Amino acid sequence: MGLLAGSTIMLLTILWGSCVIVGKCDLSEDSTTIDSQDTKAFSLFGSGVSTDLQTSYAARIMAISVLPFIVVQIPQILKLQSGHRLTLLLGLIVAVLLLLTYCLYQIFQPWIQRRKLEYSRLKHVMSGLLKHAQMHTFGHLVDDDGTPNVSVIEKLFHKIDLDNDGKIGRGELQAFIVGVNFEDIELDTNLATDQVMADFDRSRNSSIEKGEFVDGVLRWLEEAKRVVAGSGAYSKKFMDDFHITTGEEHNALLDKHEDDGESIENPTWTCFKAISLLLLGTAMAAAFADPLVDAVHNFSSATSIPSFFISFIAMPLATNSSEAVSAIIFASRKKQRTLSLTFSEVYGGVTMNNTLCLAVFLALVYVRGLTWDFSSEVLVIFLVCIIMGLFTSFRTKFPLWTCFVAFLLYPLSLVLVYILDYKFGWS
C-alpha cells in the first residue's frame, strides 16, 4: 500500500513538477507558449508549458478514478461497526468496472494513440526531408564533427523559395515535400505541409522566413541527434539511421511493420503470444513480491525506519525511474505536442494505479480475509489526486510557478501521513 501511494504521489508531484521545469518555454503576451524558445530563464510568470485540451480530459479521468478509495472508506467515514467486507467487495467491483471502462475508452476514443501517430509522422517527414536535402543540396547539412552547416541550410532555403521573394509559402513548401520520395509510408502531403508550417512559422504570418527556416532545420538536426545519439558520427549514415528509426516507429504505431505480418496473417498466434507475455510478467511479479516485502521489512527493522516510509519514498523512486527518465527526456523537447503526451502518460499511469493496482490489492485483502486499515494512505492519495486533478482539468497553460504547487504536495503528504499515523493513531 505504501508503494501504491508513493508511486501515485511521486508521479503527480515530483515528476509533474520536473516536467514543467524541463519543458518550459517562453510565454507570449496571451500566455501561449512558444515552442522550443526558452530565453526567459526561470521567470515564474514569463515561462511555462501548455498542453492540448485532450490532456485535460485525461486529468479528469484520473480524478474520477479515486472513486474506489472512497467506497472502501465508507465504514470509516460513517463510523460503522460492520459492513467492512461488503465495502471491500464493492470497492473491488468499482475498481474493475472503472478499469474496463478506461480500457474501452482508450479503444473507442484513441486520441493518445492518434497524437503519438501524428508526432511520429511529423518526425518521419522531418527525417525524409533532411535525408533528401542532404542528398540534393550543394554540401552536407552537418559537418563530420556534427556541427550544422548554416550556409548549406541557407542554400536549401533559396532552393525551396521558387519565386525568390525571401520567404517560403505554403505552395512552395508542399512542392518540395511532394518531390521527396516517401516509399515506406502513405503520406498525406497536405497534412505534412500543415505540420511543417506550424513547426517552422513562429511569426504566424503563413510563410517561413530565412531565419525561421534555419532555426527550424537546426532544431530538427538536434532532434535527430537525440534519436540516434549512439550512432557516433553525424554524416550521411546518420541521416539514414534517423530516417530508418522514425520509419520503424511510425510503422509500429500503425501496426503495419513490413517485417511482421502476424497481426494480419495469424491473429490467433499474436493473441496467444501477447497473453503468454502477460502471464509471464504476472508470474515474475508474483515471484519477486515476497522477497521484496521481506527486504523492506528487514531493512526497516535494522534501521528502525517505519516500513511504510521506505515503501513510500525509496521504492517508488526505484520502480518508476525508467518512466520518469522517459517523461523528462520527452518533456525536454519543449513542444506542446510532446508535453501533452508526457502529461497524458503521467495521468494515465495514476489512473492505472487507482484502478488495476488497487483492484489487485483489494482482491488480495478480500480473499485472504485481511483487515483494510489504510485510512491515512487513502486520504493522501485522494487529496493529491483531487487537488492535481482539479488543478489540471480546467486549464491547458501552466506557468513555471505551478511546479511549486506540485512539489509542495510531496512533503505535505509525508507530514500528513506521519501526523495521522503516529500522532492520531491512524493506521
From TrEMBL:
Presence of the UniProt keyword Methyltransferase in the record: no
Xref: InterPro entries: CaH_exchang, EF-hand-dom_pair, EF_Hand_1_Ca_BS, EF_hand_dom, NaCa_Exmemb, NCX_ion-bd_dom_sf
A cellular component term, taken from the record's GO annotations: vacuolar membrane
GO biological process: intracellular calcium ion homeostasis; sodium ion transport
Alphabetic keyword roster: Antiport, Calcium, Calcium transport, Cell membrane, Ion transport, Membrane, Metal-binding, Repeat, Signal, Sodium, Sodium transport, Stress response, Transmembrane, Transmembrane helix, Transport
CDD domains noted in UniProt: EFh
Membrane topology value: Multi-pass membrane protein
Bilayer-spanning residue ranges: 57-74, 86-108, 308-331, 343-366, 372-391, 398-420
Pfam families (alphabetical): Na_Ca_ex
Superkingdom as given in the UniProt entry: Eukaryota
Signal peptide as annotated in the record: 1-19
Residues in EF-hand domain copies: 148-183
Keyword Transmembrane helix: yes
Gene Ontology MF: a single term: calcium:proton antiporter activity
SUPFAM superfamilies to which the protein is assigned, alphabetical: EF-hand (SSF47473)
Localisation: Cell membrane
Entry's family note: Belongs to the Ca(2+):cation antiporter (CaCA) (TC 2.A.19) family.
Protein name stated in the entry: EF-hand domain-containing protein
Source organism of this protein record: Triticum urartu
